[in-house]
Amino acid sequence: MPSTSQLTSEVDKSGLRPFEKSKQIFEHNRKYIPGGVMSLPRRADPELAFECAQGAYIWDADGNRFVDYHAAFAPIILGHNDPHVNRAVADVIAQRASLFGSGTNSLEGKLAELMCAAIPVCEMVQALNTGTEATMAAIRLARGFTGRDHIIVMQGGFNGSHNDVACNVLTPLNVIGPRVSPGEYKYIPLGSGVPAPHSQLVHIVNFNDLDSVGYVCERYPIAALVTEPILQNIGIVKPQPGYLQGLRNLAEKYGFVLIYDEVKTGFRYSLGGYSQISGVKPDLAVFAKAMANGYPISALAGKRELMQLIADANAAKRPFIAGTYNGHPVSVAAAIATVERLMEGDGAVYRHMDRLGQKLQAGIESILRARGITGVVARQGSAFCIYFMDHEPRDWHDLAGHHDFARDLKMRRSMIDKGIYFFPVETKQCSISAAHTEEDIDQTLNALEDTLQQ
Ligand SMILES: Cc1ncc(COP(=O)(O)O)c(C=O)c1O
Hints:
Layout: H1 20-30, E1 50-54, E2 57-60, E3 65-68, H2 83-94, H3 106-118, E4 124-128, H4 131-146, E5 150-154, H5 173-176, E6 202-205, H6 210-219, E7 222-227, H7 243-254, E8 257-262, H8 273-278, E9 284-287, E10 298-302, H9 304-307, H10 329-343, H11 348-371, E11 376-380, E12 383-387, H12 396-402, H13 405-417, E13 420-421, E14 430-431, H14 438-453
Parallel strand pairs: 3-13, 5-6, 5-7, 7-8, 8-9
Antiparallel strand pairs: 1-2, 2-3, 4-10, 9-10, 11-12, 12-14
Helix pairs in contact: 2-10, 3-10, 6-7, 11-14
The structure holds pyridoxal-5'-phosphate.
């Protein structure tokens, strides 16, 4: 790991850092990898290549150290390369566990038992590898259970990259049109390659809008409603009081399966997930990201009545849910170790992150006030987003119509130049980890003060 504890490269004439070695690596990689990067949403301006990470910090190829709030799009909850998690991974390799691809093992049973004990909605659990696989499996299970095809998803929600859900996140208002309620929006795919007829099964409504859910349920046989309980792919957009209970009531009334996509909310705020915090249980929930502090694993969890269908004796009733790498011992060991760390001291990690979150939020709000800048911090525990608007958004149209996107992007770029890594794409949510310290928060606030002064 480079020994440097700060930025090494000098700013250029435009006042920005050149990030020379990152540029060279990108140029090389572009010859062999589309866009130069193995997952295109990771590419942003500035184009950075990272070399290593420890705790709250990441180092780029030029040796610059950043306080990391990106957390790899949110999995990093304990800090990068947490020693306890890494030891568990090293141990499982030393014990010569392998991907047997046959039968079961006690490790996967241990993880499943831990999850069933910690997460109220989790009566049974199935491990997969990614959030995308988990929402795909949840929707398939819901369709198999109800015998219906249509689903409801949220405008501004992101639930993975398969055809059912790869749509309508940061949709420009001139594409999506004005706010509609009660009603639904057109399916706008996130890219090409989605067969047009498929979109007829997917209904997009506003978050926090029960009337629109009722409207769609009156017109189509709905198998499932999939929602992040907090929309965290457009920052932090929280459910209004009563909204999740309203969804629960509509699920009972119309017989659809209520699915929480807890890929980002799960494990981040409490071991029991956001369903525990809100007190409103879905029928199924999917987890990933913070579950294993960065190792690839996800989980589909839920009511026994539904989950048992995965192994139903009647093949015609059984949804096909399988995967070569499901329950890989390395990821399972990492998940168990992460859960163990999160359980330490009766949730000490959560209390630490929340304290830092409070300090950061208070500091940012005071800087905004002192400079007369219109802005709010939307925060849940360790996750937060700064919006340059006068209230916390309640749905995508509210956000898109009021937030100053240009200022947001400029702020992020300037923070990077000051050694603070806010991912440089507007409204991307930031995450604090257990490894962050009061000093990191102070450094972040100083950088923001300088940034907004500029
Ligand atoms: C809420 C949510 N669901 C699902 C996914 C898809 O997860 P993955 O990228 O692991 O497929 C993401 C990814 O960011 C997400 O934020």
